[in-house]
TrEMBL record:
Similarity field: Belongs to the LysR transcriptional regulatory family.
Swiss-Prot/TrEMBL keywords: DNA-binding, Transcription, Transcription regulation
Domain HTH lysR-type: residue ranges: 14-71
Keyword Transcription: yes
Protein's name according to its UniProt entry: LysR family transcriptional regulator
Pfam families: HTH_1, LysR_substrate
Domain of life of the organism encoding this protein: Bacteria
SUPFAM superfamilies to which the protein is assigned, alphabetical: Periplasmic binding protein-like II, Winged helix' DNA-binding domain
PROSITE patterns xref list: HTH_LYSR
Amino acid sequence: MSSPPPAPLSHRVPDLAALELLLAVARLGSLGRAARELGITQPAASGRVRALERLLGVALVDRSPRGSRLTEAGVLVTDWARRIVEAAEAFDAGARALRERRDARLRVAASMTIAEYLLPGWLIALRTRRPDTAVSLHTGNSAAVAERLLAGEADLGFVEGLDVPPGLEGAVVARDRLVVVTAPGHPWARRRAPLPAAELAAAPLILRERGSGTRQVLDAALAAHDGATAPLLELASTTAVKAAVVSGAGPSVLSELAVTEELAAHRLVEVPVAGVRLHRTLRAVWPAGHRPAGPARELLGLTAGQD
């Protein structure tokens, strides 16, 4: 008949607090002085020594009015305890170095609109709190941001799509509205009535590439009209799309955040649209089951209240 498996190691090996107390007794020659050094009461120290002796099954300390002296077994156990405590100190130093290395850098991946119009303010605020943290920023569409996070190449991401990408968790940081814009000379700029959604769907537009949050929201909004027709131009950055629209190449659908200055300066005109809702949610995202820590957690906290 086989013997039962041994109890877990954590049930058989003393905890670090007990071993540190034993080392202090050996060094100071007094249980009372050892207790004061460790910031505990003498009765608590006595109880800790008795618990250690019960666990090991041997007497470790001889107590007398003149002080406390280690038994032969206590001397041997103290030598072992010293190695364990030194190993624990090395473990703690290594873990601290890992935390410091993590806290010294922050890798952010953000979709274009958030990177250009929201993230700079958040990063400036983060710098006042963590001036020694080096921040690297990678921009791309929402799909590219998700890929970076899932590949472990970013600590925190920001996306603009309809939903949290698969494999990620997220928190809402802002709401955004998409607007139809065109150059002042385009026929739509002179319309008196809102543009019907069907006409918007049928018009060749200058659009961001597929995979972008802007394109995803537009395609979903126009799904009842068989989606947007083939684009006139498909460009990979909001800046390039704006430049093409301002030049008179054609209309587009862009974030309100991205065209505020152009609308105020009358370089672009907003075209009202009827029968379609062009709103979206902006989110901070991270790999599922891995809540942001260190600078990433602090940056996430700076976005709170933006919604």
